[in-house]
Specification:
Blueprint: H1 21-28, H2 33-40, H3 72-77, H4 83-92, H5 96-101, H6 109-112, H7 121-124, H8 133-136, E1 138-139, E2 142-143, H9 147-153, H10 161-173, H11 176-190, H12 195-218, H13 227-245
Antiparallel strand pairs: 1-2
Length: 262
Amino acid sequence: MFIKVVHITVFAFQNTNENDEITRYQMGRYISSNEAIWRIFGFQIHERDPAVVHLSIHLENGQRVYFNEQNAIERALTTSKTTSTEFFELNKQQNIFGQYARTLLYSEVPTYFTGNKALKRLLLINVRGPTSYEYLRTVNGQLYNTYHDACRELQLLESDNHWDITLRDAVLSSFPHQIRQLFAILLTTCFPNNPKELWEKYKCSMSEDVLHRHRTTNHDLNIQFNREIYNEALIMNEDLCLLISNQPLKLLGLYSLNRTSV
């Protein structure tokens, strides 16, 4: 025996120019018995656990500034405050709050202090009590020019041991141009901690074909590796890096080149 069930839907068209969003929302909203009881007893409707606080990360004077026609002059004359800059200011305070804040890491501050919107990554989460961007770049009393140098001095960066092994294995079975290509890939995609050290260790292997060409061209087998040969090999490396990522070696942590001598 089969029973046929028919669903009937009733709707209507209404010609109106009104668009009352509040009324539409109230008519379309359904409050269940669970939500009603929850509200009657005054329980919290929204909750975040654990609490999530956005901590800004930016370079010195690199914070975003939002402005319009009315406040453009004011924004230009007033330094925009962020959680990073206010973290420094908090650590400068000589009261009990500043003293305690200087024992905390950047990521720990929201646990003990509340702030508002007025209130660099690796250093900020590893250096306690910084008071400025220069403080972040200072290690054992020495001010470093870059955050990268400061991180390296603090031994916060990953070791280049695996890149060292990669190049060492390539030297055993690859031609110089292949080793240079591998080195360029490491520079542009793997960002080794100390590329100069890797270059100094394997520059002879990456320059053997250049040395052979100089010896053949000059009919002199006594020519040895020199600055000119290394510079030419570096130029080849830079050409590869420019092709891969459009970045010169100087931006990748290596030396500035002398292209006029080639």
